[in-house]
Design brief:
3 helices, single chain, transmembrane, 73% helix, elongated, two-stranded antiparallel sheet, transmembrane helix, mainly alpha
Length: 104
């Protein structure tokens, strides 16, 4: 191999690496510029407190519904019972139905 072939291959390899790095940097720049206008505004402390208070109210209301008895629709006879009680009754119902099937 002659010296000119070695220098040419070294030059081609260097240009390829520089081109690849340049392409990656250009791609990252385009991504950053595309993201820039859609960056969300920082949340103010007052808004964060309001959201936290709303979340707490929703959790309290849902906990009250889950853990209490109540009337859902009196005309159709639909009532609400606590989840723990419903799970216990469901397990009892399955146990009695499975024991009846075994005894047959």
């Amino acid at each position: 191999m002659s010296d000119s072939e070695i220098e040419t291959s070294w030059g081609n390899r260097t240009l390829s690496v520089i081109g690849g790095v340049g392409f990656i940097l250009l791609f990252l720049l385009i991504l950053w510029l595309a993201y820039l206008p859609y960056r969300p505004e920082p949340i103010s402390e007052v808004l964060a407190e309001t959201r936290l208070q709303n979340l707490q109210e929703i959790r309290n209301a849902s906990a009250e519904v889950i853990d209490s008895y109540g009337v859902v629709n009196p005309n159709e006879g639909i009532y609400r019972i606590p989840v723990e009680e419903a799970m216990r009754l469901t397990v009892e119902q399955y146990r009695t139905s499975s024991s009846e099937k075994e005894s047959e």
